[in-house]
Amino acid sequence: MYLYNDPYDYPARRYLRDASNPMECYDDVEFQQRFRFRKDTMVNTILPLTGILPNENSRGLPIPPIIQLLVAMRFYATGNFQIDCGDRHKLSQAVACKIIARVSRALALHVGQYVKFPPVNELAANKRKMFQIAGFPGAIGAIDCTHISIKNPDRERGEVFRNRKGNFSIYISMCN
């Protein structure tokens, strides 16, 4: 019996993951259709945030920060289920969930850099532009909103997340 002196040399287990980068795979139009951002916006505004995303995990198969960011951006852009957003990079729903939460926290920490109320000297110009565009007097901006579908988070508090159509969702808003 070979309990201690195993004569077989077993090969090390190899983990393979599709490491294709959507920044390189898609042209500008395809990228914007999938992520609702232009590539130059991603590079100049959002990619600097990858420095605060960890590149390690407990399993020894790191997910690069750019892929983490793009998984979360795909989730925000489409409102698809997490499993669909992770499938593009061969990630499970659980990993996609952790990535989306991690990226969301990172974006929330830096929201002050990107979300600002217009200064007083720009308010009059914004009001004029909004009146010319839409005919709304006194408006200084516009907001676009969407519902991102979620599963019922909790039987007791779940009704807080039910929208007017009877589905569970989180309401996300974006302004100019």
**What's the overall average pLDDT, rounded?**
78
Helix and strand sequence: HHHHHHHHEE
Structural class: mainly alpha
Number of domains: 2
Number of helical stretches of at least 4 residues: 8
Helical percent range? 40-55%
- Count every beta strand, where a strand is a DSSP E run of 2 or more residues: 2
Protein name: (diamondback moth) hypothetical protein
Can you lay out the helices and strands and say which pair or pack?
Blueprint (H helix, E strand, L loop, with lengths): L21 H4 L2 H8 L3 H8 L18 H14 L3 H6 L5 H17 L1 H4 L5 H15 L8 E7 L19 E7 L1
Helix pairs in contact: 4-6
Task: Provide a descriptive summary of the structure in words.
The chain is mostly helical and 176 residues long. The chain folds into two domains: 91 residues, no CATH class; 58 residues, no CATH class. Helices cover 43% and strands 8% of the residues. It has a two-stranded antiparallel ribbon with strand order 1-2. Helix 4 crosses helix 6. The longest helix has 17 residues.
Would you kindly provide a brief summary of this structure?
The chain has 176 residues and is mainly α. It has helices spanning 22-25, 28-35, 39-46, 65-78, 82-87, 93-109, 111-114, 120-134; strands at residues 143-149, 169-175.
